[in-house]
Write a structure and sequence with these properties.
The chain is of the alpha+beta class. It folds into two domains: 99 residues, 3-layer Sandwich (Rieske Iron-sulfur Protein), CATH 2.102.10; 186 residues, Naphthalene 1,2-dioxygenase Alpha Subunit, Chain A, domain 1 (Alpha-Beta Complex), CATH 3.90.380.10. It has a seven-stranded antiparallel β-sheet with strand order 12-18-17-16-15-14-13, with helices on one face. It starts with 24 loop residues before the first strand and ends with a strand. The structure holds FE2/S2 (inorganic) cluster (FES) and fe (ii) ion. Fe (ii) ion (FE2) binds next to loops. Fe (ii) ion binds next to loops.
Length: 342
């Protein structure tokens, strides 16, 4: 796709023009919620798309994910523990299986467990040092078939032993859409990152190769010796444009905590200086520093999510990748792809 030369003038919305966009609607996709190492013997609670989930490890160490509040009296299940491979609530000891069904009520051990004694279960995977949850409501109130989720496809470098991956994460007070746009934005480098990655980047955008060919879910940008690749809705990777022996990559994945908070998990990966003590910490810290340079402007954006229509903000040719993202987001909002509502 070629950058358009036209400038789209902003037009402010009046209430009457409101389109069906909703800041509380998110694509159903695999989102990371925690680092694997955070989940040891004790269950933990994490928030995603405005819902609370409890994560725990069963007898075999396998990660399981249930809605966080007990079907009996709403106690927080992350206060409980794994007993007999089931998650035992801390309040009255009800035990929930990985399907979300309660299988044991200590107060009435010899009576059948009623059918309504259950919580919702969610597909969960452990991959690339992260725990990922698939927040699908498919199946209604029935116990969710935890295996009924599409494959989790992460970028291959995350499972490539040639790379050492230095992890980092941050949480921003911002809507997912604004966070995604910040990593598709080339024109901000010379301003927001003038002391770091934008130090030698000119403000003028003369040459930006931008591709949105092939899958509508992929946006690629060649810029200053790097190739950015975004995969809708949540993953982003920066690789060198050409293959060299010493490779440096940066990966981020976005997790919508709710309509106003997004957690960012990232890896700074390298194929060089792999065993130098302290090197991973330097890479993690530098990546975090760059993210923090973005944070103030992204958190300042108004309205909180991207507006409901393209015409409601001004676009210039340098914004072509973001315009492409907006079109994809609007297709999502108005189409029949799986959605999760907060
Ligand atoms: S609140 Fe969980 S067992 Fe009673
Ligand atoms: Fe940035």
């Amino acid at each position: 796709m070629v950058m358009t030369e036209s400038v789209v003038a902003p037009k402010r919305a009046t209430p009457i023009e409101k389109l069906p966009s909703d800041e509380r609607v998110f694509p159903v996709a695999w989102y990371p919620v925690a680092w694997s190492k955070e989940l040891k013997g004790k269950p933990i609670k994490r928030r995603l798309v405005g819902r609370d989930f409890v994560l725990y490890r069963d007898r075999r160490g396998q990660v399981r994910c249930l809605e966080a509040y007990c079907a009996h009296r709403g106690a927080d299940l992350s206060l409980g523990k794994c007993v007999n491979g089931r998650l035992q609530c801390a309040y009255h000891g009800w035990e929930f299986a990985e399907s979300g069904m309660c299988e044991h009520i200590p107060a009435h051990p010899n009576r059948p467990v009623p059918d309504f004694a259950r919580v919702r279960a969610y597909p969960v995977r452990e991959e690339a040092q992260l725990i990922w949850v698939y927040p699908s409501d498919a199946g209604g109130d029935a116990p969710c078939d935890k295996d009924k989720a599409p494959a989790l496809n992460v970028f291959p470098e995350l499972n490539d032993p040639r790379f050492v991956l230095a992890p980092y994460d941050e949480e921003w007070r911002a809507h997912l859409t604004r966070v995604v746009e910040s990593v598709l934005d080339v024109a901000h480098l010379a301003f927001v990152h003038k002391k770091t990655i934008g130090r030698r980047v000119p403000a003028e955008i003369k040459k930006m190769q931008f591709e949105a060919a092939g899958s509508p879910d992929v946006i690629s940008i060649h810029n200053g010796g790097g190739l950015l690749e975004y995969r809708f809705p949540q993953q982003w990777m920066l690789r060198p444009d050409s293959s060299t022996n010493a490779q440096f990559i940066n990966y981020v994945v976005f997790s919508p905590i709710d309509s106003n908070h997004t957690r960012i998990f990232g890896f700074a990966g390298r194929t060089f200086a792999k065993h130098v003590p302290g090197m991973s910490r330097i890479f993690s810290n530098y990546s975090r520093k760059i993210l923090r340079e973005d944070q103030a402007v992204v958190e300042s954006q108004h309205p909180r999510p991207i507006p409901e229509a393209l015409r409601m903000e001004a676009h210039v040719p340098a914004d072509a990748p973001q315009v492409r993202f907006r079109q994809r987001w609007f297709d999502f909002l108005t189409g029949d792809e799986p959605k999760v509502l907060m």
